[in-house]
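Q: Here's a chain of 403 amino acids. Please give me its 3D structure as C-alpha cells.
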Amino acid sequence: MAKVKKVVLAYSGGLDTSVILKWLGEHYGCEVVTFTADIGQGEEVEPARAKAQSAGVREIFIEDLKEEFARDFVFPMFRANAIYEGEYLLGTSIARPLIAKRQIEIARQTGADAVAHGATGKGNDQVRFELGYYALNPEIHVIAPWREWDLTSREKLLAYAESHQIAVEYKRGKKSPYSMDANLLHISYEGGPLEDPGREPDADMWRWTRAPEEASNVPQIVELTYARGDVTAVDGTPMTPAGVLATLNRLGGLHGIGRLDLVENRYVGIKSRGCYETPGGTILLKAHRAIESITLDREVAHLKDDLMPRYASLIYNGYWWSPERELLQQLIDSSQKNVNGRVRVKLFKGQVSVVGRDSSSDSLFDPHIATFEDDGGRYNQADASGFIRLAALRLRTYARLKR
C-alpha cells in the first residue's frame, strides 16, 4: 500500500463513495478531502456536505460547475458535431475531464498528493478520470478502490456500510435497478434489465422525456441564434450556454426527443448496452449542422466530417486533455468564425426537423446561382461539359483497359 498523506475524492454521498470515504481512511490511513460537482444532474448536492461532515471530513468542496461544463466542454464538442459510433452524443464522456480538472486543482490547493474516484474496473470512466489526472499532474497518485478492494457486490457494500455505521439513504431492495449517470447534457441507464440487449426498456425507466406517441399533437417551432458556432439565444431570448441546454432539455423532453437505445464498444473491450436521454443535445446537433450547411465551405465541411469520428473517439476514450484533441479543437474552432445566423427547428413526436436557416452576413448560399429559373448568365451551364469530361477521364481510361 503506497504511502498517501491526503487524497481528494470525487464524492457524491451515495453508497459507493460513502463506503470509499471510510475505506480510504481505513486502508491508507490518510486524510480525505471530498469534492462534489454540480454539473446539472438534477439532484441536490448540498446533502453531501452534511454526510461528509458527519464522517469527520474537514475540507469539503461543493461547487456549481454547470456553466463551465456547458461553455468549455459541451459547446466546443458540439462545434465538431461529435457523435460516437454514429449515435451516442457523449453525455457521460464529456463530463469526466471537467471533474478530473477540478480534482487536480483542489489537490494542488489543499496540498493533497493523491486523488480517488468510484469508477469500476470494467468501465470507461476509470480511464477517462485517470487519463485526465495524469495529463494535468503527471506525478499524482491515483487510488481506484474498485480495483483494489474485495467489496465486489452491492450486498458487500451494504454490509460494509452497516458494520461501519455509514448512513445510506436507501434500504435493501429499494434502489433503482439501473446504474444511472446524469448531467446537464444527458441521463444514462445501464445494468439491471438492460443487460439483456434483446429486452425493450421498461416504459417507466425514462425520466426526462415523454414517450413520443404520448407527446403533444401540436408541433412547436423553436428558433436558435448562432454566433461563431454556439447558440446564444432561444426564440430571441439571450441565454448562457447552461441556460440554452436547460431550455432545450425541457422543450425536447416535452416532445419526446432524444431517446436512444444502443450497444456500444467500450474502450476496455466490452460491449455494453445503454439507454440515453439527450433531448437538448439532439436538437443542438441537428440545428448546428443546419447553420453550417449555409455558412461552411464545402471542403471545410467535408474535412470536419472526416475528422469528427476521430475527435469523438478521443472524447469517448478519455483523451480530452491530449495534444491531438487540442489541435483538432483549434481547427474546429477556426472553422466556426462565420457560423452565424438563425435556425428554426420543429419539435414533434420525438423528431427534430429543420424548417429554416438563414445567415444575413455569412451565408454561402447564392439564390441567384441555385435557382431553377433564369439566372441572368451567372452560371454558364455549358461549362459543365468540360468539367465532366475531365472528371470522367480516369474512368474512361480504366474502362478501355478492362475491355
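Q: Can you summarize the key feature?
A: The first strand starts at residue 6 and ends at 10.
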